Amino acid sequence: MPDTAVLPVGERTALPPPGGYRLAGCVLERTSLPLLHRRIPTNGGELTVGDETTLTLPDLITATVVVEGRRRLRIAGWLNLRDRRHTLRLTARVVHVDDDGLVFAATGTAVASGRRRLRIEAAMEFIR
To answer: Taking CA atoms, which of 47, 51, 90, 121 is between 20 and 30 Å from 27?
Structure first.
């Protein structure tokens, strides 16, 4: 069992209280071929929890986040990669949430018009 599987989530919903949270840590990778992973560099970011929850990584990702259960999130939006705009769809599992932040692990796809589908994997931590 991975270490992250035992972190407490308790009876909380999948998002922390409303407000702005900054990106504290991120691993974002793309896979175009099986077993070939490439890291996508990130430069800061923000999760804004409110009536509409948004995820923004400057010049890279703009997406909305929807809760789909106590520990599940759906992330949908845009990934800008190599001067192409990809449609981004991720499903995330909340690993840890408290009043000061959120950690989630996500997988999904990014597709640009006329291009091959990319598999995207992410682990992100947001804190107040």
So the answer is: 51
